[in-house]
Amino acid sequence: RRALDSSIMPSKGQSRSKGGEEAKVPLQAVVLADSFNHRFRPITLERPKTLLPLANVPMIEYTLEFLASNGVEEVFIFCCAHADQLTQYIENSAWSSTAGFVVHTIVSTNCISAGEALRLIDHKHVIRSDFILISGDTVANMDLRRALEAHRERRKTERLAIMTCCFKTITRRQREEHLGESNLVVAMDPATGRVLHYDEQASPSLPDANASPKRTKAKLSPLSLDASLFSEHPSVRVRTDLQDCHVDICAPEVLMLFTDNFDYQHLRRDFVCGTLNERELGNNIYAHELNAREYATRITNLRTYDAVSRDVVGRWVYPVCPDVNCLPRGDPTAFNHRWPQTYLEKGADVDPSAVIGAGCVVGAGCVVGPGAKVSRSVLGRGVVIGPNASITGSHVMRNARIGACASVTSALVCEGAVIHESATVGKGAIIAYDVVVAAGHVVADYSRISLAPQPAHDDDADSDDELEIGSFGPSSGARLSDPSGRQMARSDSRGSFGGGGGFDEDDDEGPGGVFLTDHERALLQRAKEGTAGDATTELWAPEGVGVGGAGHAWAPRWGEEEWRFSIAPVPPGSSDAAYARDDALDSDDDDAHVRSGAKLSAGGGGGDGSDSGTDSDGEDEALESHFRKEVAETFLRCVKHGYEQANAVVELQGLKMAENRTFADIARYVLMTILGLSLPAPRDVTKENSKLYPAKAPDNTPALLKSIRERLKQWAPLLSRFLKSEDDQVEMLLTLEDYCAEDEVFKGMHGALLVPSFAKILHLLYDMDVLSEVSVLAWAEEKGLAGEEDKRFLKLAQPFVDWLKEADSESDGSGSDSSEASSSDEE
Fold first, then answer.
1. Closest C-alpha to 118, from 80, 74, 169, 157
2. Could you give the C-alpha distances from 524 to 497, 549, 623, in angstroms and in order?
3. Spatial separation of the C-alpha atoms in residues 528 and 533, rounded to whole Å
4. Which H or E element spans position 59?
């Protein structure tokens, strides 16, 4: 293995031979070892996702084996969260010394998106030809050579064929219930396989009795295709039966495009959709379809994790299955396969009275006690299952312990965790590393329990690396689990390291892992032994783990979508029911057919107050919130880097095209971001951009207005350029109302602090030619027809509106006087 730094240069494979011919360039691959999302929290606070065991093998092993078996010779693994653990794992693995297969690691701990990762790789100039782009959580057995050959042949005649994406035919139920993936619509030219349109969005939800009415609306938008596609292509085929395998063959130009477009962050949503929308540039993307016997799936959430694990156990990914004993490479295993699809590794101790059902993997060193029942579950090495315990549809990592008569159903129990006797772990629950569930306690369905307290902004924190566990830092406490060389030894951990069943006084301090004081360590050990009693309540609330347990219960994160993304089986027919409900909502009102295809309004203030308008806003709130955040992040990047307005326009225009929105939509959220820069940072801003905001709001209104005036003076020309009509300006005023009221997409953004200054802000916008007199008066007239509860901001702005009306009448009067004087002179 050769580690990369900023000074790395292209290898000698790029040089020319003596005859002047270019030397052969090895087939290269870029592996993104960070998914840049937090679906696997709290587990990934302590371990990188790609090192989580899938059927007792770290995910990264499946990806590297797939690449090696398809002739890839050089791999660049991009590491971000917990990079030290991943690089150390590669160093200690057989991949570091595999002939003809060179692995480099590129480390960037402050990278927050796939786009930033690819820009960094481009800056290092290590990619010299067409390459494979894949995530480190991909499991596949497909023949990549067939797709490579088609891509290379196409590139010979079409240099702008920059990307080939792999797809597999799949039913909607398989994609959305079995894998937990999103609704996907792909339009393509059936003759050439060229992708013309890519639309991925959240699938419709089932109603939730506990959710607000707005959260139970359908989410799907109607499909909108550019009419010119039908004139440019003899035939256009719209596919809804595809799974995106996230295995791409890319030309080097792909990296250049990411470098040239800083608004490209997400690989599919930004780059693929942006490339397809910018057809004038001529860059094309093609599709390659897997055959029926091929398999390729990226593990994007816990539902996919469970599904792919079962596919491996069910031999759908053959020859990648436990009894082939090829993974992890260089770490021999000894699994035996017996029907129906059960794998026992040599050294497992199963009591004769215990029942090991279908679909199980039992690792070496496991002890399964008398009368225990295990079905459709994966048990890691060293797991102990007590007498008469029941494990169904679950994943139990190495060295975990399940007590007598305990029940674990469709859950994930991490390394070193202890479930004491007669405890119950409900479906979809996640029991993180070293958590202890007290005897007899019932863990609720879909719970997440960790030794780490839940972050204040669980959904929005930048990196799993930034959160440490325990009441004190490493300097004052002892480390419970450590990604050191001892625990990463292949013979000991097979890649799943830390935690375990006990402690090591010689563990070193370092990033990641759990830090506890000596007192906390001792209390945790007693909790594992079942002797702590109520002493644990001083640290861990008993509501989550029971009296005598150890761990913090995390609040739910996915609401009514738990059934879709959790490890628990999806209720049969859930997907069909959600789509049927979506269709029913469409048929109830014609307005539903144009839910988000029409121009979206954050607050819907431009509507007529009918129920259909309110319903539409509720359905699209999540999409609109995402768009607002994209605009804010793009604009803040321009501010942070000191871009000139011309460059900022280019950045925002790229976002406009990628999201298929209008300049007015962009301007509305740019203005709210400008105003917000004078207030404390909102809850969803990244940690890096939060530095642009003041720690607290100005002490008084004059100071606040002064701060706003300075920023508006700089960016007013850009806003004026984007707001092309009076209707656009009225829409912006309605959005400003929502911002100040902190409604819908503006919750938690401190807009309420601007309410006393509302009229003054309007005056500033008017003075700087962002708002016209006509648009302000049109807004006032519209609000005058609304109900009393909707006139709050009109009343605040009334002095300014009255001033405009008086100025308008005086102007009309002076114009009339001038006309009369002119007539008198002529006489």
1. 80
2. 19, 8, 43
3. 11
4. helix 59-69
Report in angstroms the alpha-carbon separations of 825 from 569, 584, 813: 91, 73, 18
The C-alpha atoms of residue 133 and residue 827 are separated, in whole angstroms, by 84
Could you identify the residue written with the tokens 């976002």? Answer: 655
Helix axes 758-767, 773-784, angle to 10 degrees: 150
Query: For residues 747 and 5, what is the distance between their CA atoms, to the nearest angstrom?
Result: 42
Please give the pLDDT value at position 221. 67
49 and 96 Cβ atoms separated by less than 8 Å: no
Q: 216: pLDDT confidence band, cut at 50, 70 and 90?
A: very low
Q: Are 44 and 29 spatial neighbours (Cβ–Cβ below 8 Å)?
A: no
User: pLDDT by residue (tens digit) across 268-283?
Assistant: 888 898 888 888 788 9
Could you give the CA distance from residue 170 to residue 655 in angstroms, rounded to a whole number? 31
Residue 528 has pLDDT above 50, yes or no: yes
Please report the pLDDT score of residue 295 as a whole number.
94
Query: With contact defined as beta carbons under 8 Å apart, do 345 and 328 qualify?
Result: no
Residue 464's SS3 state is helix
**Alpha helices per DSSP H over 72-143:** 83-92, 114-123
Place of tokens 């008469």: 388
Q: Would you state the pLDDT for residue 487?
A: 34
Residue among 604, 630, 612, 636 nearest 744 (CA): 604
Pairing verdict, β 373-375 and 390-392: parallel
CA distance 116 to 114: 5
Start-to-end C-alpha separation, the chain = 99
Cβ atoms of 138 and 312 within 8 Å: the answer is: no
Distance CA 542, CA 423 (A): 13
398/55 Cα distance (integer angstroms): 11
Q: What are phi and psi of 736, to 5 degrees?
A: -65, -40
Q: How many CB atoms lie within 10 A of CB 154?
A: 18
Place of tokens 């979809």: 428
For residue 27, the tally of other CB atoms under 10 A from its CB is 19
Tell which residue, 570, 573, 550, has the closest CA to residue 562: 570
pTM given for the model: 0.67
Residue 375 has pLDDT above 90, yes or no: yes
**Which DSSP letter does residue 306 get?**
H
Nearest residue to 671 via CA among 617, 627, 635: 635
Q: For residues 739 and 731, what is the distance between their CA atoms, to the nearest angstrom?
A: 12
The segment with the largest mean pLDDT, out of 19-33, 77-91, 248-262, 353-367, is 353-367
Q: Are 351 and 370 in contact (CB under 8 A)?
A: yes
- CB atoms closer than 10 angstroms to residue 659: 21
Under the banding of pLDDT at 50, 70 and 90, the label for residue 811 is low
| pLDDT tens digits for range 1-29 | 333 433 344 443 444 444 444 567 889 99
